[in-house]
Specification:
This protein has one domain. By secondary structure, it is mostly helical. The longest helix is centred in the C-terminal third of the chain and has 34 residues. Strand 1 and strand 2 form a beta hairpin. It contains 18 helices and 2 strands. Strands 1-2 form a two-stranded antiparallel ribbon.
Length: 408
């Protein structure tokens, strides 16, 4: 919860409180309480799962980066080891989803946070930013230039920025959409559909084109994996119609035009710039198997690795490019193998699970993960707060869901 609202507190009280450190400490304390809980030991069997082992290997490789000969300072590596809380979150999540009640609780908390964030984003769109929010946006000319585009203020709700808000809304909207097809009462399905709509609607006003593409790709993947179900054809027909109306309907405003531009990348100058950037950086990646070192790219490189070849006032604009530059093609290969394992396991779960409720929950985590793994190509999407927590819990769900039994 704190990772969701910490930015709101920072805008109200502009005092340098290290909320991020507080969040990290809470994750460590949660893991320690789990470690010393003698009754909760079911999660231990999942530690030896191949997905868990490869995930731990990724962070072991990050620790090994201290020996990277291309790094120019120790501070960048020291800052990066904060990411060691990620495996702790995964192990704690394995304990949480050891029962179906724990899985339901996780989903309820997730959708509650996302729905409230979506509603507040809609409030910002139709009623404007509050005084302290507007002061925060205008305090930095660069921030204001990124948020105020074509005469429209991009919404960000109580999250850090429009990009993280839009991606989180897309991710969560897909989860609620998948749960609509679970064997639930009509009232619960309607509520899930309403939540999904609120998130998708508020996402549009974030102006985040990566989020738009995530929703489309997630729905296409959902249709492909559930094609044998009759209801899928009806849903596909309705969604294709809605998409065509959005793309070619006789209505125009800044948000709609930005949404349409997401599906016309050839007409997007920013995509051309990113393509050129990736092409120019590829020789460096091939020449440095271990990469340039942790926190050496862009503005982070200026702060922690001054004088490094990769440091400068620019952004990688891609989670994968950042990993490839800082950890080399070795680190990128490890990450891609891990993502492939999660996807293969998740797809196998869907076809092997006999309980339709567990199938729906499996898809509610798998489909958004697939979408954000694609979105990570154009944004450092997987590390956005609070999204990264639900991405990590996805690994735990994919590993442990086949052991669950729903109450009869």
């Amino acid at each position: 919860m704190l990772t969701s609202i910490m930015f709101y507190f920072e805008r109200i009280i502009p005092v340098g409180i290290p909320y991020g450190v507080v969040c990290d400490l809470s994750f460590v304390l949660a893991f320690l309480s789990l470690l010393f809980n003698k009754r909760e030991k079911q999660w231990v069997e999942f530690v030896k799962h191949p997905i868990t082992l490869v995930y731990l290997l990724i962070f072991a490789y990050q620790l090994f980066q201290i020996f990277n000969p291309n790094a120019v300072s120790l501070s960048g590596w020291l800052v990066s080891i904060r990411a060691l809380v990620f495996p702790l979150i995964m192990l704690t999540s394995l304990a949480l989803i050891a029962s179906f009640s724990g899985l339901k609780l996780l989903m309820k908390v997730w959708l509650l946070i996302a729905t409230v964030a979506g509603l507040y984003g809609i409030f910002q769109e139709f009623f404007g930013l509050t005084g302290f929010e507007m002061r925060w946006v205008t305090a930095d000319p660069l921030r204001y230039g990124l948020y105020f585009i074509l005469g429209h203020m991009r919404t960000f709700s109580f999250l850090s920025d429009p990009a993280s808000f839009g991606v989180f809304m897309a991710y969560s909207s897909l989860a609620a959409f998948c749960l609509m097809f679970a064997p639930l009462s009509p009232v619960k399905r309607f509520f899930l559909g309403l939540c999904s709509f609120i998130m998708a609607f508020s996402m549009i006003y974030s102006g985040t084109r990566t989020a738009y593409a995530m929703v489309l790709l997630g729905i296409v993947f959902f249709i492909l994996i559930t094609l044998r179900k009759k209801v899928t054809f009806i849903v596909a027909f309705l969604l294709i119609g809605a998409f065509l109306v959005l793309m070619f309907g006789p209505f125009y405003n800044q948000s709609v035009m930005r949404l349409r531009s997401a599906f016309r990348p050839s007409a997007d100058a920013s995509m051309d710039v990113r393509d050129v950037k990736r092409a120019n950086l590829q020789p460096y990646i091939w020449a440095h198997p271990m990469g340039g070192g942790m926190n050496t790219t862009g503005s982070a490189g200026v702060k922690y690795s001054a004088g490094h070849q990769l440091a400068g006032g620019w952004d990688t604009d891609s989670g994968y490019l950042k990993v490839a530059l800082e950890q080399g093609w070795i680190g990128l290969t490890l990450l891609m193998i891990f993502f492939m394992m999660v996807m293969v396991k998740g797809i196998n779960n869907y076809f092997n699970l006999s309980d339709p409720m567990l199938q729906a929950y499996n898809l509610a985590f798998l489909i958004p993960f697939f979408a954000v793994s694609i979105g990570n190509f154009t944004q450092i999407a997987i590390l956005y707060k609070p999204l990264y927590i639900f991405v990590i819990t996805t690994y735990a769900v994919i590993i442990g869901i086949e052991k669950l039994k729903t109450p009869r």
